[in-house]
Amino acid sequence: MAITVISGQARTTKYIGASTDTKPTLASHGAVPTPVPGSTFLEYDTRTMYITHDGTNWVAKDVQTSAKEIRTSKVIDGGLGAYAANDVVSNEDCCSTTATCWTFENVARENGGTGEIRAAILVSESEGIVPLLTFFFFNAIPTSNLIDNAPNTAPDCADILKFIGKVDFTALESLGTTDSMSIITPSTPGGLPLPFKCAAGDRNIYAILVTRTIFTQSASDDIYAILSVEWD
Q1: Rounded to 5 degrees, what are φ and ψ at 212?
Q2: Separation of alpha carbons 107 and 113, rounded Å
Q3: DSSP conformation class of 197
Q4: Per DSSP, what are the bridge partners of residue 58?
Q5: Domain limits of the chain?
Q6: pTM here?
Q7: d(Cα 147, Cα 92) in Å, to the nearest integer?
């Protein structure tokens, strides 16, 4: 057992920053004081407190809730017209260097953390367009095709160590002249809850969105994705 004793006279440091800020370490702390065992870091945007036992590794403490909501979005290219079934839905239809996967940031309490996706929502600006869509999830950026309106190749065997699973959305629906949406929970078909484990050194998970049906998205309309997760 490795126990760190923090003296009552120890000069620990209390840091405050955003969840996107890199936490200081013994090796790299910029202009702020060097962290010592017992120092804390409060993420003001997530209200999560972290503590370090060695001045390098940070773990969450005093977590008031294990539930968290993560939002992301993409401007969908859609410039090539209709999608075929099993095509990727993304931000770029011609350049592999600018086509990106969907990134859900800080889904875990700490680097390499675990949890469950408990609910998933898709909202599309293209009202009245009601495809069946699927998210393939990974704990690192996959090598599978990311280009919009091109055939999906996920999950590829080359990404098997990154692969988390998939969530199948029911058909998007528009109730009136509004955006189209679909909500998946454990009480609906779709594959939830979905356990995940982030990669070492990362708190994010990544996804590829694929259509299961033919549809035409209004070019440059946004699709928003919302995940409700619970940390272990």
Answers
A1: -95, -5
A2: 8
A3: E
A4: 52
A5: 14-61, 67-231
A6: 0.75
A7: 6
Query: Maximum distance among all alpha carbons in the chain?
Result: 68
Please report, in tens digits, the pLDDT of each residue of the chain (232 residues total).
466 666 555 688 999 999 899 999 999 888 899 999 999 999 988 778 899 988 999 988 755 567 889 999 999 988 888 999 999 999 987 777 789 999 999 999 889 999 999 999 999 999 889 999 999 999 999 999 999 999 999 999 999 999 999 999 999 999 877 899 999 999 999 999 999 999 999 999 999 999 999 999 888 899 999 999 998 8
Q: Cα–Cα distance between 189 and 29 in angstroms, integer?
A: 47
Strand 114-124 relative to strand 180-184, pairing: antiparallel
Determine the residue type at 124: S
The span from the CA of 15 to the CA of 41, in Å, is 4
CA atoms of 144 and 96, how far apart (whole Å): 11
**Cβ-based neighbour number of residue 166 at 10 Å:** 17
Give residue for tokens 């009245």.
128
Bridge-based pairing of strands 14-17 and 40-43 is parallel
Beta bridge partners of 166: 136
Residue pointed to by tokens 């209004």? 218
For 158, the 3-state DSSP assignment is helix
* 212 touches 89 (CB < 8 A): no
Pick the CATH number of 67-231 from 3.30.565, 3.40.190, 2.60.120, 2.60.420: 2.60.120
CA-nearest of 71, 52, 51 to 63 is: 51
Strands of the sheet with 133-138, listed across from one edge: 102-104, 205-211, 133-138, 163-168
